[in-house]
Each structure stands twice: as C-alpha cells, then as structure tokens.
Write a structure and sequence with these properties.
Length: 175
C-alpha cells in the first residue's frame, strides 16, 4: 500500500516490467483526484490490473481495511510535512498497516535539524528493525524498516496524522 501516493509512479515504475506483477495486489491512496486519474491511466497502460487507487484522505484508516496488514507500506514524501507529534503518531499506526515481517519504505529530507535519527528511534519503539538507511551525508533520508512484532488490529475511523499548515511548512522549508 502507498499512503499519499500521488500518481503512483514509484510503485507503477517498479511493477510495470516485473515478471510477477499479476501477483501483486496494491492500494494507493491519494487526495488529489487529478493524480488518481493519471495514476489509474498509467497503471492500465502498464497492465497492472490489481492496482487500486482510492481518491481520499490517506490519513484515515478506513481506506486500508481491505488490504491491511500489507507486505509493503510506502510512506514517501509524508514525514517532512508533519509535526514531530504527527510523525510519531503515523509511525505508531504502521504496525496496524504492516504485517509481521513486512517492510515500510519512507523518506525525509536531511535539512537541519535532521529528524531522520529521531524517525528511526520511533520506528524501533514501534516494533520495527532498520533494514537500510541512506547515508547521513546524503541530502535526503531514505529508510526501510521491517516489522518484527505482530501486526496490530486496524481500528476504523482513526486519523493517523495531520499535515502542518501551509505557513508552517513554508517556514520549515526556508530554514
């Protein structure tokens, strides 16, 4: 599954030529209906018939009931748009989205203050083991964490996170 999936280019690109693409069931949740429409067209062109887009708020647990727990959760481009409180909150929900032994792939910039070490700590506190992390010298943090504990039940109607207001995002980017 992919949260805040945009047009789904990361998953569509990875699956388009994969020999087992027909075996993959994928859910992508994206708020912008224009991105959803483009993503659906790209998926069809790539022959990805088991790839489902939902036009909706990716923060709501209701969208994931049919597919959770998943083997892979993609949370790219999200953490940098959240307060520390909501970043920690989203990570605390990932054991409800990811199966035991499944992976979460995530991203966050490394601009000061570098939040990547704290994000890794929150993953550890929530039953995940680091599998790979880009070097601290890179401008962007990319991580893969594996769920080592048991999956937890997904509770419908929960909000996993809220984005920072636009003025706070702009201030953060201009530091």
């Amino acid at each position: 599954m992919s949260l805040c999936a945009g047009q789904g280019r990361d998953l569509i690109g990875a699956l388009a030529d994969h020999p087992r693409k027909a075996d993959v069931r994928t859910l992508l949740v994206e708020l912008d209906p224009r991105n959803v429409d483009i993503g659906r067209k790209m998926a069809m062109a790539a022959g990805l018939t088991a790839l489902e887009f939902i036009a909706g708020d990716a923060a709501m647990t209701d969208h994931y009931r049919e597919i959770a727990p998943a083997d892979l959760v993609v949370a790219c481009g999200i953490f940098g748009n959240l307060s520390d409180q909501h970043c920690q909150r989203l990570i605390s929900f990932l054991p409800r989205l990811c199966r035991s032994g499944g992976d979460v792939i995530w991203t966050h910039n490394r601009r000061p203050p570098d939040r990547v070490p704290q994000i890794c700590l929150w993953f550890r506190e929530n039953g995940f083991e680091e599998q790979w992390l880009s070097a601290a010298t890179e401008p962007f943090g990319i991580g893969r964490h594996r769920m080592t504990g048991p999956a937890q039940p997904l509770i419908p109607g929960d909000r996993m996170f809220e984005f920072l207001p636009d003025d706070e995002l702009a201030a953060r980017r201009n530091r």
